[in-house]
Every structure is written in structure tokens, then in C-alpha cells.
Amino acid sequence: MLHRFAENPIIKTSNLKPLHADFRILGVFNPAAFIFNKKICLLLRVAEQPIPKAGKCRIPFIDHSSGEAKMSFFELNSNDKDLDLSDVRKYNYCGRDYLSSLSHFRLASSSDGKIFEIDSKPWLLPDGENENFGIEDARVTQIESTYYINYSAVSDDGYVTSLIKTKNFKSLKRLGIIFHPLNKDVAIFPEKIGGKYFALHRPDSMPFAKPAIWISSSPDLVHWGNHHVLLRPGQNDWNKLKIGGGPPPIKTEAGWLVIYHGVKQPAADSSEFYSLSAMLLDLENPQKILSNLSPILIPETDYETNAFVKNVVFSNGAIIHPQTQELMVYYGAGDESIGVAAIPLKEILNQLT
After folding, report:
1. I need a surface site. Which of 43, 207, 226, 250 has the fewest CB within 10 A?
2. In Å, how far from its chain's centre is CA 78?
3. Considering only CA atoms, which of 109, 74, 111, 107 is closest in space to residue 93?
4. Angle at alpha carbon of residue 151, lines to 148 and 155, rounded to 5°
5. Does domain 3-352 sit in CATH 2.115.10.20?
6. Are strands 250-252 and 255-264 parallel, antiparallel or unpaired?
7. pLDDT tens for each residue of 233-277
8. Is the pTM above the cut of 0.90?
9. How is the chain split among helix, strand and coil, in percent rounded to 5?
């Protein structure tokens, strides 16, 4: 249903330089998308990895031993019998998982939504004990004149969701952890509904159930409760393994437009298969699903099917283009690059209504 831009991928690893000597950029992907100062902006996830050395495996982390946050790594022999390198996203050593890269955020801006100017310096670096394995997959929600950025913070304690706020993207205030481990894919609604804030999120429910999309409410964006399951994985092949939220919901005259992802159960010789879909929630009662679609974007192109991680389209950023009134979905392609796909807002709402 979505049409990809001919310029895809619009941002690639070759468009950036690593922050640290002896590191390389593995991927720039899963961007947040928002409008700021009349420009279309992205908050990019940039994943860096120590350049491999022959016979060695180097695991990156943020070292706080000196009292300051510094990039570091520890080194293992690649042929160590206790080291499992079968998953490119992570290493398993002595039964414990470590990420193969460490992520930070950079800002990018554009006048047309296709060609972006990328800041050479990071906008946000991992900091603190809850982020020593990096920060990932930001989502930006504008509420009045304030921008709230939630993201996954990864550490020895697993992944949590943290929140910061800013008005100008120069100074920021950290509001702390808002969803405990293990929880991610948090998407905050851009206004109060019935006097409360709402958010979608996905707690890890394994091994009792497959991960589903939940909805919760809050009086202040920090303390969340009233948790309910909104949507569980379906019986269709494309979303049978798990589902999770995407960009912050978009308010339309027909309801809250929600883009979300579903994951296909992989065959024995293949990887998980990530697709995107859409649903519509009631404006006054967002716990009520009005309609739901089959996939609107599935991995098809080479940069999606044969990338760092095969067969992935994953979005946590979407906007309505101010001039064209198109829904523009910015997505990570194969955990390596960024693409954009669009559809007239009226067209997708017609499909949902």
C-alpha cells in the first residue's frame, strides 16, 4: 500500500563518520520523525562497532569507572568455545548476551523530507548505569510546544524505556525511566484524552505469551498505570510471532492512526521477517480498535532483504507532510539504512474506514 521513494535508502552508513577511532558504523536506522522549525527532522539511531581484529571479538560498552562515560570494549578470542557469534546483532558469551554494537542519536533535517543534512556530532550519547550498552529507537512526541523523546536504554539489567524533554533540541531535561524492564516500543499520544496521557508499549511476556501491544495511561507522562492489552499477535502468518508499536499515534478526523510492526515466525534456515501494518483507534477511547489492516509494507527490496539483518522494515517515525498531506513513514531497512514510504492520508484512511 505504501510507495517507496525512488531515492531509497535516503540515509546510508556511508553518509556518516564514526565518533571513535578504531570503530566503524554498522547501521543508521530506526529514526524518530517530527516537524521542528518548519523542517522535517529525524533523530537517527547510529550503531557503531569496534573494527574487528583477526582472531578477536571486541564487545563495546560505556565505561563509568573513571567517573565519566567513556566508550570502551573488552576483547575475547573468536574461537573461544564459550563464545557464540551466530547472531550478527549480538554475542553470547558463557550464556550471556552482549550487543555487537553500541548506539547513539544524531539529528538530521530536511526541507523536502527526502534529502537530509545530518549533524556530525551526536545529539544524545549513552550516559548513566542504565545505558552502558547504548540507547536505541527514539520516538518523538510533540505535546504543545514541548517535544518528548522516549527511547530504549540498554544495560546489564536489560532494556528499559527512558524519557527526556526539550523545547529547542539544544537543552534537554531527563525525566528518567518510565517503563521498567523488560519493556520497549513505547509510543506516546500527542495530547491528553479524557484528562490523561496515553501510551502504547510492549512488555516482554515470554515464555507465557507472545509479545503484544499494551496501552496505559498517566497523569504526568512519568508514572504509568491502568495497563491493558490492546492487540495480541494474530493467526495470520505475517504477525504470528510478535507485534509491537511504531511511531507515536497520529490524530485524524477518523481516529488515532497507529503504524505498528508484526513479525513472522522464521523458518529453520531463515531470520525473523518484520512487516508494517496500520490500525485505527477511537479518538475518545483509544483502548477501542476501530479497524485494522493487513501489512502495508513488507521487505521486498535488496536493501531490506539482504542487509545487516535480513528481511526487516521497522518504523518508529512517521509524519503528515505539511504540503502534500501524505503519510510519510520513515523506517529502518535491515538494521542498516533508512528508507521512506508514503501514501496520501485520505487513501489510507479510506482503507481503514
Report:
1. 207
2. 30
3. 74
4. 145
5. yes
6. antiparallel
7. 988 889 999 999 999 999 999 999 999 999 997 766 667 899 999
8. yes
9. 5, 55, 40
